[in-house]
Specification:
CATH topology of chain A: ABC transporter involved in vitamin B12 uptake, BtuC
Order of helices and strands of chain A: HHHHEEHHHHHHHH
Oligomer: heterodimer
Number of strands of chain B: 16
Order of helices and strands of chain B: HEHEEEHEHEEHEHEHEHEHHEHHHEEEEH
Radius of gyration of chain B: 22 Å
Number of domains of chain B: 2
Largest interface: A-B, 49 and 42 residues
Strand order of the largest sheet of chain A: 1-2
Number of strands of chain A: 2
Number of helices of chain A: 12
CATH superfamily of the largest domain in chain B: Response regulator
CATH architecture of chain A: Orthogonal Bundle
Distance between the termini of chain B: 79 Å
Largest sheet of chain A: 2 strands, antiparallel
Largest sheet of chain B: 7 strands, mixed
Structural class of chain B: alpha/beta
CATH topology of the largest domain in chain B: Rossmann fold
Number of helices of chain B: 14
Distance between the termini of chain A: 47 Å
Strand order of the largest sheet of chain B: 9-8-10-11-12-15-16
Radius of gyration of chain A: 19 Å
CATH class of the largest domain in chain B: Alpha Beta
Amino acid sequence: MDFLKLVLQLLIPGLCLGCVYGLNGIGSALLYKGSHTINNAQGAIVGLGALIGYSIQQGLKIGLIASTAIVVVITFFIGVFLQVFIISRVERRSSMYVVIATLALSLIISSISMLTFGSWTFESATIIIHGSKYLHINFVNVDILWSNIIAIIISFIAMISIHLFLNRTSFGMAMRSAAMDSFAAESCGVSVVKTRAVTWGIMAALGALGGCLMGPLFGISAGIGIAMGNKGNTGAVLGGYGNMYGAIIGGLIIGMVETIFGYIYSPYQSAFTYALFLVFLLLLPKGIMNEKAIEEG
Amino acid sequence: MRIIKKLFVLLLLAFVSVLVACGSKGEESLKIGYFGNLPEAGDCLVQRNTIKLFVEKWNKEKTFGDVTVEYYEYDNTNNGAQDTEMSIKAAQKLINQDQVDIIISAQLSNIIQATGQLINDAEVIDIGLGLSATWMQQGWDYVYRTALNNDYQVPGMTAKMKELNQNDVALLYQNTDNCLTFRDTFKAEAAKSGLNIVADEMLPAEGGTGITGQVTKAINSNPDCIFITAMGGSFGTVVKQLRQSGYKGMIYLGQPLTTTEVDSIGSEEVNGVAMFSPYIAYNRVEDCKNEFCKNVLQAYFDKYGTCPQTDMIYKIWDAMLLIENAVKTAKSTDAKEIQAVIKTLKFQGCAGTMDFTRGSNECYFGAQAWVYTGQGVAGGPTLLEDWLKTDLSSKVKMTK
């Protein structure tokens, strides 16, 4: 019974972290698939989204779910804005310019967040159901935070929504076609400019969603997104860079492994986690989802 | 060709500017330098605001007679975090270009450790705001501390744990110079006091989200209490995780929480979080009971319209008091003369008497035991002894 309790104590938070890393990974995967570049500003956008969420909670006196919904919309447009006014202009030269530009954006967003909110950690609104923050599981006598459970549920809803959007809507299919071959898509009447802007919007919105969902668990600070963005990217590579489903699986693996190694032998938590990542890369260079094979198929 | 000409003119201008800056050393002035995280609106903002407050006051009141006080500051960050290489560059600029008399290093001990030798060799007074024991063990004659060395907190803390029958202690520490030395000192003192370390878990140095496994292990080790040493700003996340994971016992911290951290943990859950510190941060000036500290907070509030969210205000205030007393006593801005008089100084600071006469370049040697009550603003911090007499302590499991 103690073992089952331990499994639950580690599984749920690990799964929750993994889902949030997965959300970040999806954004990275979509971007890579669409424009073969990476976004170094993702972590900063996650932090910014979480801070905007905190400001909305304080200003409008609303709860976590409502504020998160508003943040998702706001950050979607921030992502679109960044793509239209900055990224689209530099990516004409080379994808390397995008990498550098996003690095610059990361520093700018982080600095503005720091100047505005400081390095403090703020209290986020939390999830309370039936007057309690916990779901008590009787047979193993363990309390699980509703915030963890809700974060997992919302993350999965977001993932399924993205899947449906990309596969069942005409714009989603346009995005996929633009990602596969932008010239061919454009010649068929797809606006690659629009699809890329929406890709950035989705990436920013998913990152900010993750940041907001982590708020009740870790508090909100400008720096909360940096590690989450990096781990989301790592998960995306693990899953097969450019593959959305691989990014989810990769994120879940990183979240679980990190939590388990933190329990087993904490001084080597990062070393073990990333060593495992390297082993995966060596054994499965195309990632878990064998991304190249999918692309070719 | 035109570009080369423009570059040449720019270089010439830069060279002349440097010469002018160097030439100004001959004037009667006291030059104070600072490096820290300039874009950050946290501890470093409190430091810079306080320095500016004092410089303005000194010049207005002519505290040092005809000597004008000048202030120079540089950012030491790289990718948003304070960085040793950038700090060394900043220290070099302050020493060679600005020719400052006194440098106030920011609050990170690894930064002070990295820049201390350079500043000491240049015979410039260096006041460090970090808490680690290590950099004061280098024997640097020009390096001083106006905050409490971590080592002086620990004996009182372990003695209190023993007194409360909290014999089994779980330890959570961050992988930084300050936290590692604090942990070593704690383990040594715990062994002397007969305490058992039942868990000893490392938290990621960068903070963040990867702490769930460590927190679960600390709780599952069934401790009487948990001791955390982490970088300022990281405590709140760890305490929050401990409480959210169902831990109801006492939590001891290596330093006080900021007022926003208390808010982020939540008032009920912060009840029973204790620390050994000379002072503590408050949300409102009127909550502070110590008259000296209250006046400090009021002066800051009057100038900037906000009460500092961190105990950093007291550390930097004491640093400025040290400069004021030393320069006034030495009647000189010469670092050697200032250094000579500091070892004779004994004056009132935020945590009582700042006594530099012991010759260790430190001034405080003891702390008070505080605890957050979870009541009122900023968790209603109070003295541990008072809290133990109230019903609030009964809401916390004092032993397992």
